[in-house]
Amino acid sequence: EGIILLVDSGSDEEAPGGCSRARRRRQLRRKRRQRELRAPSIKQQKASPIPSRRLSLVSSTIEENFFRGTLDFLMDYISSRHYPPKKTMQDVVRQILLRSEQQEIQRDAYMLVMKIQALHPAKADTVVWDWDLLRDVMTEQEEEVPGRLLFLNYVIQTLEDDFQTTARQGLLHKSIAKKMLSCDHCFSNIKELNAWLVAAVTGTIFPQHGDQQKAGSLSEASVAKNSITVQELQLAKTAQIDLSQRVVVLLQRMLSIAVEVDKSPNCSANKIANTMFPSVLNIPKRCQREAFLSSMECHLLRCKVLELICHHNCNKPISLPLSMAKILDFLTHLSPLIKYQDNEATWQRWDEMLRQLNLLVLSYQRIVLGHLRSSVRDRINLIIKSAKPKLQSHDAITVSDANYRINIFQKQLLQTLGQPLPSPIKEKIDLLRVLLHTIADTYKTFEHFDGPPGHESS
Predict the structure, then answer these.
(1) CB atoms inside a 10 Å sphere around CB 32
(2) Is 106 helix (H, G, I), strand (E, B) or coil?
(3) What angle do CA 403, 307, 416 make, to 5 degrees?
(4) Is 175 exposed, middle or buried (0-12, 13-18, 19+ CB in 10 A)?
(5) What's 334's DSSP letter?
(6) How far is CA 413 from CA 346, 383, 400, 419, in A?
(7) DSSP state letter for 48
(8) CB of 271 within 8 A of CB of 183?
(9) What are the phi and psi torsion angles at 82 (to 5°)?
(10) If you ran DSSP here, which 8-state letter would residue 292 be given?
């Protein structure tokens, strides 16, 4: 009977206990086979440096400045299994990507480094650029660094890829961003980054190159004398504006990463905003100030900068932490106290302040709804749990509160201007009303409010 019972225990038609044990044994065997099948593939995928014989060919082309050969060899040799040593990558970046004056060579060098980045993402100990190199690239003349924009794209890609990977692993303290952009450890880099950003917005960075530089220095009155058409002049100016805008976007992305890489994004945003605020005041034109603020990718940082601007444009100190109640107080006590270099008309200064207030409302809503005051790791957990936003007691506003404050503001502004409100101002007031109504209705669904905020809400 014992033999019969043992044989029958492997049958699905026998007792439930025997069937369960047999099924478990089959599952264990299947898992073991799967592990055995996977083991060789994992071993095969383990990357190693390019073989020395092939690498010697690459090195000889670099020594002879035969960069076309360098790129062709590397493009053939790079794969998921093989990567170039750090020294070779540094040569490609410094000698070819940054210094070659041939656009085709530049483009191919960029494609190569991006391919390597995709197959073998850079880490803090393998990244081939450092802050000294970035500083040199950003401060040298354009004709000396023709591949500057491509290099910036590559820098952002390495930062972004590594940030995403280390954030998922809970290892941001080992990231490239922590090494280059930490407010806690290298805040001087953040100050330099802010200076480059302001220079890009105001057009004092990236001098025009070649014919564009010549064309950019000409007035339309001297176009005919210098054999340059008005169309060519306009194209040169447009190209320069486009270049500056692309640089601004890239630098803003770096600032966004800088806010997130340390444990407290709120504290980092406060530190960076305090550095940025004087720079914003020195931006001479309104269109440039608006470009600076609207291009900010990080809503937390933009909110902090706008809070400082509104605070200095108020005729009465407001001690509340950043909240919807404080924003309504800004509206009540707003006054054009900050003097900019462009000396716009009074109504235009009010128009700019209203635009900034609308931006502040939009960014603050994104902060609350997106848990942006929390660290990246905590935020991921909150999003996974579909956690409701944490509201402060000062965020509890109603539609009637919003209408009352806006009506008072309109009356005061009519008295100040001594004329009917210009249509741009009316449009911004209407937009502000819609935003405040939407927020009041949205926040009612969150049911509870936290008590008075601590340092994280400051």
Answers:
(1) 10
(2) helix
(3) 55
(4) buried
(5) B
(6) 11, 42, 20, 9
(7) E
(8) yes
(9) -130, 140
(10) H
Q: What is the pTM of this model?
A: 0.81
Based on its alpha-carbon atoms, the radius of gyration of the chain, rounded to whole angstroms, reads: 30
Phi, then psi, of 49 in degrees rounded to 5: -65, 160
HSE at residue 30, side-chain half, CA atoms within 13 A, is 6
Query: How many whole angstroms separate alpha carbon 256 and alpha carbon 265?
Result: 10
pLDDT in tens, 14-72: 444 555 677 777 777 677 666 655 554 444 468 899 999 999 999 999 999 999 999 99
Provide the residue type at 64 as one letter: E
- The whole-angstrom separation of Cα 24 and Cα 6 is 15
Bridge partners, 83 (sequence order): 49
Q: Which amino acid type is present at position 272?
A: I
Give the H or E element holding residue 49.
Answer: strand 48-49
C-alpha 361/C-alpha 353 separation (Å) is 12
Q: Mind listing the pLDDT tens digit for each residue in 300-313?
A: 999 999 999 999 99
Residue matched to tokens 């209408």: 403
378 Rama class: left (phi>0) / alpha (psi -120 to 50) / beta: alpha
Q: Do the beta carbons of residue 256 and residue 299 sit within 8 Å?
A: no
DSSP 128: S
- Residues 6 or more apart in contact with residue 226 via CB below 8 angstroms: 214, 218
